[in-house]
């Protein structure tokens, strides 16, 4: 009897220990996130803000490990890495999905968004445009957690500023993906896809004749040291996505999903509220503090660019099919 009691107590202790261990495992979850820029970069800082919000809301039950500056993966590698589960979360330029899902390239279609207000409406979480794109991306095994508005795209050049579409003919131009490549081809140029972190050397070495990026990137990456002029075309929009492995998301508890969702929405709204101001501040910095010339187009010049870019919109619809047509129609409803 004594031995039976001892065995029963021992079994009970083991079960209790096992339950405690299980509780500890379930109580804490650490997610690994890869990004290709510094944590101090505006995009990286927004992810740090998300990390802080998640860990605060969960009281440390959810933690985030950030691997910045492409320690683990380049931006172009993120869709595959997250989709396969090699990394839990990652930062990716939305255009990286356009190669396999053409409709996702909408935000890089030249002059698709005539104003910042139209962009904000199209990218809002409640927008049919945003919701369809998010669902298309889920086909890759990645779930969009939030969007990061990084601002409009401009044209960079050496020597004379680019003010007329005819100046693009036969020029090698840095592009972000297929939609921006279609824009350059419509102008008679040669598109060359170059990653954001590779721009400085590409411009310095003359790999391309003309650059394409936002004003905040010009400032943070010191591109004004290797290019002489920036033309404010606002011809496309830079949207980054923070994506998560879809199966991992499905494995989370309702409470964990709530913590993640609330922090993601807070991070997205924070960045979208700050982006326009930061882009204008960077434009002023370039004009006042560097030797780079800032050129603003006249209304007539802007119209000429828009007309020259029209074939790129048609090419987008052709390659994206019915989904692309639906998205273009939804965006155009926002023009009024």
Describe the protein in words.
The protein has eleven helices and nine strands. With 336 residues, it is α/β, with parallel strands linked by helices. It has one domain: D-Maltodextrin-Binding Protein, domain 2, CATH 3.40.190. The strands form two sheets. Strands 1, 2, 3, 4, 7, 8 and 9 form a seven-stranded mixed beta sheet that branches. α2 (42-57) links the parallel β1 and β2 (62-67). The longest helix has 36 residues, at 254-289. It is globular and about 55 Å long.
Descriptive key words:
336 residues; 49% helix; 7-stranded mixed β-sheet; alpha/beta; 11 helices
Write the layout of secondary structure elements.
Blueprint: H1 2-27, E1 29-34, H2 42-57, E2 62-67, H3 78-84, E3 89-93, H4 116-123, H5 128-137, E4 142-157, E5 172-175, H6 178-186, E6 190-193, H7 199-205, E7 210-213, H8 215-220, E8 229-245, H9 246-251, H10 254-289, E9 293-296, H11 299-333
Parallel strand pairs: 1-2, 1-3, 5-6, 8-9
Antiparallel strand pairs: 3-8, 4-7, 4-8
Helix pairs in contact: 2-10, 6-11
The total number of structural domains is 1
What is the mean pLDDT? Answer: 90
* CATH architectural arrangement: 3-Layer(aba) Sandwich
Number of DSSP strand runs: 9
- Shape by Cα distribution: globular
**End-to-end distance:** 86 Å
Number of helical segments with 4 or more residues: 11
Tell me the CATH topology.
D-Maltodextrin-Binding Protein, domain 2
User: How can the largest sheet be summarized?
Assistant: 7 strands, mixed
CATH superfamily: Bacterial extracellular solute-binding protein, family 7
* Uncertain segments: 5-26
Overall structural class, as computed from helix and strand content, comes to: alpha/beta
């Amino acid at each position: 009897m004594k031995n039976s009691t001892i065995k029963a107590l021992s079994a009970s202790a083991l079960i209790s220990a096992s339950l405690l261990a299980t509780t500890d495992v379930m109580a804490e979850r650490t997610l690994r996130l890869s990004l290709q820029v510094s944590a101090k970069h505006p995009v990286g800082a927004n992810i740090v803000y998300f990390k802080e919000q998640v860990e605060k809301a969960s009281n440390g039950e959810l933690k985030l490990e950030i691997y910045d500056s492409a320690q683990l993966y380049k931006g172009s590698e993120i869709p595959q890495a997250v989709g396969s589960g090699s990394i839990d979360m990652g930062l990716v330029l939305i255009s990286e999905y356009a190669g396999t899902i053409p409709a996702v390239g909408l935000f890089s279609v030249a002059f698709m968004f005539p104003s910042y207000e139209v962009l904000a409406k199209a990218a809002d979480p409640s927008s049919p445009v945003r919701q369809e794109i998010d669902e298309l991306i889920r086909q890759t095994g990645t779930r969009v957690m939030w969007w990061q508005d990084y601002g409009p795209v401009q044209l960079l050049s050496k020597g004379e500023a680019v003010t007329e579409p005819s100046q693009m003919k036969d020029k090698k131009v840095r592009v972000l993906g297929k939609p921006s490549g279609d824009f350059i081809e419509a102008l008679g140029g040669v598109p060359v896809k170059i990653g954001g972190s590779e721009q400085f050397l590409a411009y310095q070495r003359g790999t391309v004749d003309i650059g394409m990026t936002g004003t905040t990137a010009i400032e943070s990456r010191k591109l004004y040291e290797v290019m002489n002029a920036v033309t404010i075309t606002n011809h496309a929009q830079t949207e980054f996505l923070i994506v998560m492995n879809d199966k991992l998301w499905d494995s989370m508890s309702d409470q964990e999903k709530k913590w993640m969702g609330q922090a993601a929405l807070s991070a997205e709204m924070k960045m979208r509220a700050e982006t326009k101001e930061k882009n204008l501040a960077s434009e002023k910095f370039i004009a006042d503090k560097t030797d780079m010339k800032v050129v603003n187009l006249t209304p007539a010049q802007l119209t000429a660019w828009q007309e020259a870019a029209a074939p790129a919109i048609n090419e987008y619809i052709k390659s994206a099919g019915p989904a692309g047509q639906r998205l273009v129609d939804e965006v155009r409803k926002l023009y009024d």
